[in-house]
């Protein structure tokens, strides 16, 4: 016959086993470790001590978009109304660089005030975005969520999670959270996906509206288009000056244009790649 002591011991072992099986409670979010983080689902944030970014002043050929996004971000950081932003258009024209540069620019002018936090959300983690926003809702600092190269493929339904997060459901989007995304597509979804929905739906126009309405959640649309030759050369000149490389203007123009011709495009990314190659050949380092 089992004694009372043996029974208590058995119950303790059972309780310990159940505790080990139960999921651990998520640790509280600590945003003091850095100004930039990467979201690690389901509830973690990995601090980024050194952000890979370009100085705000080096972004050339996108002046209008640059100023609009900076103004929107400054208003948000100051506690004023601001819009979610979608930066869309040509590849390599500084969409993601602009978001990171604006974040640094805003924080450089905030002084002793609470820093604006930047949290990168990977495309594959969009499904967890509503939960992340709930976790961030009561934190005492402005938070900018950023998703680079956002788009959705055929049969991908995770865009519905993004729509829910941007709308915020019955509670609304948290006042201390703003969402910026970059994409090569203006409507984030491939055209054939919308056409397939249109051809199979009972009401084709409603099916297309469902897909296009995702972009409508972004109050601010900023288009990035291929740059002119003069803008491209100005980008190269700016990067050379920042790196302290003095090159004959005629030689720089010839080599930079030849580089862009071999790449088949002109963009800020191509300009930086040219300067990187040149600095390497000259034995110089680039500071970013």
Please summarize what this structure is.
It contains 10 helices and 7 strands. The protein is α/β, with parallel strands linked by helices and 288 residues long.
The overall pLDDT average reads 83
What is the H/E order?
Answer: HEEHEHEHEHEHHEHHH
How large is the count of helical segments? 10
Shape: elongated
- What is the distance, rounded to the nearest whole angstrom, between the alpha carbons of the first and last residues? 76 Å
Helix content: 40-55%
Beta percentage is 5-15%
Number of strands: 7
Strand order of the largest sheet: 2-1-4-5-6-3-7
Biggest pleated sheet: 7 strands, mixed
Gyration radius from CA atoms, angstroms: 24 Å
Category from helices, strands and their pairing: alpha/beta
Contiguous uncertain segments of 5+ residues: 194-202
Layout of secondary structure:
Elements: H1 4-21, E1 36-40, E2 44-47, H2 63-77, E3 85-89, H3 95-108, E4 117-120, H4 129-136, E5 143-147, H5 159-167, E6 177-183, H6 191-200, H7 204-216, E7 220-224, H8 229-243, H9 249-263, H10 268-282
Parallel strand pairs: 1-4, 3-6, 3-7, 4-5, 5-6
Antiparallel strand pairs: 1-2
How would you explain this protein's 3D organization?
The chain is an alpha/beta fold. It is built from ten helices and seven strands. It has a seven-stranded mixed β-sheet with strand order 2-1-4-5-6-3-7. Helix 2 crosses helix 3 (95-108) and helix 8 crosses helix 10 (268-282). The longest helix has 18 residues, at 4-21. The protein is elongated.
